[in-house]
Design goal:
By secondary structure, this protein is an alpha/beta fold. Helices cover 26% and strands 21% of the residues. The strands form 2 sheets. A 7-stranded parallel beta sheet has the order 3-2-1-4-5-7-6.
Length: 340
């Protein structure tokens, strides 16, 4: 099969650099263009020294003319910019967005949570929110792919199957998530310069974090009952990784083993999801630098209450790796292409 020509827009951020590091290992990919704004003219090795000896194009400003020469456009840009690019797509192009531009099904919800009008409403219905282990069977019909956020990835992978099968109560789910500071982008150092970023733990977006909208939308698709949850994210003094701790109430006659067996069956053919033994303690260290998600079901002193632990690398499974996974599915490439 001929190689796919790829353009990466937003190539210099943490996610963009991670994406490039994975793409250069992919046997079916040729990186044709790297695009940025303030970084135009620089080599990508300026942002990651390990790329110094790789044959990669210099960073240029995005031009819609480039779309004639590429098959796949990855956008790791500020919210709103992928929408503009989507308005110029050609029939041959597939756009895979790692920001929030095509995560929400309604333009009104995007305005509510992101405080900006959607610039490509016509393309919302032409796009798919693709969590590959959940709804990859539908991707063939779409050329615009919205990749899930990092926090939602760690949360939805364990919750969707057990909510769909009515194993837990859908009210009062409590989600406590902790992320490495890379999830806040390169500007995090400036933003938190007076808050001792490297030695403290910070809660943020309490009650109203933007990912609430995405989590709510996706959970509601798998149950007739309204799902209510509380989600609190935290920034930790580590570079990357996410650990989500999810507190749920079991329905009658459901046990920890019920959840375990369902998740093991659901993900039995998944290359990247690992369901661990009951009461296994997990850490972000178990998944760093991989596209894996580790999930553990833990019992509590109350028979009807369970704690679910879920760990991912926010820049890979929660970002660049999942985007490549989605590309592999879309183009029928090896599932682990670029991800081994």
């Amino acid at each position: 099969m001929p190689k796919l020509n790829v353009l990466v827009a937003g190539s210099t951020g943490y996610i963009g650099v991670q994406l490039i590091n994975l793409l250069i290992k992919h046997p079916n990919i040729k990186i044709k263009y790297l695009c940025g704004n303030s970084s135009v003219g620089k080599k990508i090795s300026f942002f990651d020294k390990s790329l110094n000896f790789k044959k990669l194009p210099k960073i240029t400003k995005f031009n819609k003319v480039y779309l004639k020469e590429v098959d796949v456009i990855f956008t790791a840009l500020p919210n709103g910019e992928a929408q503009e690019i989507s308005n110029h797509l050609l029939e041959k192009n597939t756009l895979i967005d790692l920001a929030a531009d095509f995560r929400l099904d309604k333009a009104s919800e995007y305005l509510k949570w992101y405080k900006q009008k959607h610039k490509s409403i016509k393309n919302i219905k032409k796009s798919i929110y693709l969590l590959p282990e959940i709804n990859s069977d539908k991707v063939k019909d779409y050329n615009i792919i919205g990749c899930p956020g990092c926090y939602p990835t760690s949360i939805l992978l364990p919750l969707i199957p057990i909510i769909e099968k009515k194993l837990i109560k859908t009210n009062n789910i409590i989600i406590d998530s902790k992320s490495g500071y890379s999830g806040a982008g390169r500007g995090v150092h400036q933003k938190y310069k007076n808050k001792n970023l490297y030695e403290s733990l910070s809660a943020y977006g309490v009650g109203f974090h933007r990912h609430n909208s995405e989590i709510q939308q996706e959970l509601n698709k798998y149950t007739e009952k309204k799902v209510t949850f509380s989600f609190t994210p935290h920034l930790t003094p580590m570079f990357k990784g996410i650990l989500s701790t999810i507190y749920v109430d079991l329905n009658k006659k459901i046990t920890a083993n019920s959840l375990l067996n369902l998740l093991k069956k659901k993900y039995s053919k998944s290359e990247f999801i690992k369901i661990l033994k009951i009461n296994t303690l997990i850490s972000t260290n178990d998944v760093i630098n991989t596209n894996n998600c580790h999930i553990s079901i833990c019992e509590t002193k109350f028979k009807n209450k369970i704690i679910i632990l879920s760990a991912i690398d926010n820049l890979i499974k929660g970002g660049a790796g999942q985007a490549i996974q989605n590309m592999n599915i879309k183009f029928n490439l090896k599932k682990k292409g670029g991800l081994c």
